Structure formats: C-alpha cells, structure tokens
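Dear colleague,

Thank you for sharing your sequence with our group. We've completed the structure prediction you requested, and as agreed, I am returning the results in plain text so they can be pasted directly into your records. Please verify that the sequence below matches your submission; if there's any discrepancy, let me know and we will rerun it promptly.
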Amino acid sequence: MSDENSAKKKDLNLGRKIFFLDPPYNFVKKNLATLRMLEYEVYIVADYKNMKTILSLYPDSILYIYVDTILSRRAWLNFIISIQHTPELAATKIGIFTKGLTDSQQDDFLKNAKIECGLILLQGADDAITGAFIEQLNENNAKGVRKYVRAECSHIKAAQLFIEIDGKMTTLQCMDISSVGCAVQVPKGFPGHLEKNMLIRDASLQLHHGIHVDLLCFATSQGTEFDTAVFLFVQASANAKNAIREYIHILLQKALNESIEKANPDNMNYNLPLSKILEYHEKPKDEKEGEKKEGEKKDGESKEEKKEEGKEENSQASTESDGQKEEQSKSAKSEDAPKEEAEPNTDNEKAN
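Please find the predicted structure tokens below.
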C-alpha cells in the first residue's frame, strides 16, 4: 500500500467531516445540537456556491443537502450528480433531507443519483429524526475509531489552563482540546514537577468562561522549544463537557468559515441541461483552472477598458466644467465691475 493510501486510510479511521448544506433553523437548534453533543464532527455551510471548494479540501466527507429551498429540485439533482462526476469530489458520500418531497420526487433522486447516506424526512418527533441521521452516519463510518472531536487552540491565547503545583499558581497554554482532556505547552524551566498519573485538583480551564475540573496527567513529552503535557478531565460534570463541546464546535466552524471566505464561488447554473453541466465538470482540473484564469483575464481587461473610458469621460466632463466655470467667471467679473457715474449735465445750467 502506498504512503498516500495509508495516510488516507488513517484519516478515514479518524472519522469524516459532516457538512449540512443550508439546514433550517429549528433543525440546527435541535437535531444538529444533539449530534454535536454525541461527538459527531458537524459543520454548517450556508451557500451551495462554496460547497465544492470545501469538498475539494475534505474529499472524503459526508454531505447532507436540504433540497427544499434555494435551488429547484431538478437543479439540486444536477448539483449532486455533478459532484459525483467530478473526479476530485467523487469520494464524497451524499444524503438529502426534506420536509416535503413527494414519493415521485424522492424516487427521482434515488434513481438518478447515488444517495449513500439516505433520504431523511423531517417529519415526526425530533428524537426519531436525529435517530435516523445517527443510523446513517454510523453505517457510513462517520466517527471511525475516534470517540471524541478535537480542536486545535494553540493559536488562541485566551485558551489557557490554570493549575496549582507546589503551592504556586501557573498558567499553561492549551494546544488542543476535546471533551475528555487537553494538551498544554509546558515552558522550559517550568518551576513545578509534572509526571504521569499525577492528580491535580481544582484546575481552571479558561475558554469562553472558566470551567473548574480535576486533572490527571496522562503523559508528558520533551520538545525543543517547550515540553508537552496531556491531561484528562477527571469526573467532569455533564454541563462542563457540553460547554467544552460547544467551544470546540465554535472553533471548528470558525476555521471552516475562514476557508469559505477565501473560496472562489461556484457560479454554475444548475438549471442548465445536465449534459452541459457534466461537460464542464468532467474536464481535468488544470483545464478548468486555465479556462477560469482566461475568464478572469478577460474580466480584468474589460474592467481596465471601462476604467479608461471612465477616465476619458471624467476628463472631458472636467474640461467642459472648466470652460463653463471660466465663462461664469468672466460674466461675474463683468457684473461686478464698477459702473462709470454719469457726468452732470451743465448745458442747461449755462443756458439758464
């Protein structure tokens, strides 16, 4: 097995990212919140135009599409088929969810596209709906061997662990965190002593707010710039764990949003005939990028031409304006010039 295939298999063993495209508000608040608390790595993408870029970054993901809004049902079907015909996205596992597809519309999706993660109706009790998603996610190995979702936080200075060792309060920077433990940086020359199986009472984990936990030192390791210690949370309350899970979700979603901000939007019209859509999506990636650059070049040239035209128009307008101002100035000077006083008529005086 090649190194690339081994790495891919290792990544899948750690589970899949699960993207929900344009889910309804109530579904997010109830069903997705439950999936997060059950340690599924769930993300929300609001705009289908960003979806393919995200899938290109995480091609072995699971994608659930809410097909009741934004696009027509036919356009959604074309969108799904185009993903499955794009080589770099073909490993994506797709499911759909809906409030109102008719039986014939459901058959249309199931017969014409590969819906590996199920077609789930948002009907009935919330527990039943969530259960239907859990069943599909487990069948598609959403978690892998991973039991807990983890997020990196070494770049967030406010993510800190306060512990007391040898009577001294010490602050340690968190490197990553899950609902069962965290890894921290231990500075060189650390004044205290840390060793495996050491129990630390009443530590304070600072995330959005302080969370009090007892810690068990699970492992330590030495590095060049700093050492590392891994702590497990001992007998953490359900509220504390849920607060940590919510924090992890916020970090992961924020990282995804930052990727979306850099993404180039998918401007394909999915109401076009499927053959036209597939003709584009089945092209090699470098050919599509070449067409895109050519389009951007033409757009740039067009913008420059418009800019130059605008400059000429502005220059002409400025010249005309200057001419008008000069005429107005001359007129104003003429009006403002002092009029000569009429000389007194002395002829009558002489005659008299």
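Summary note from our side: Residues 1-10, 332-352 have pLDDT under 50 and may be disordered.

Kind regards,
the structure core
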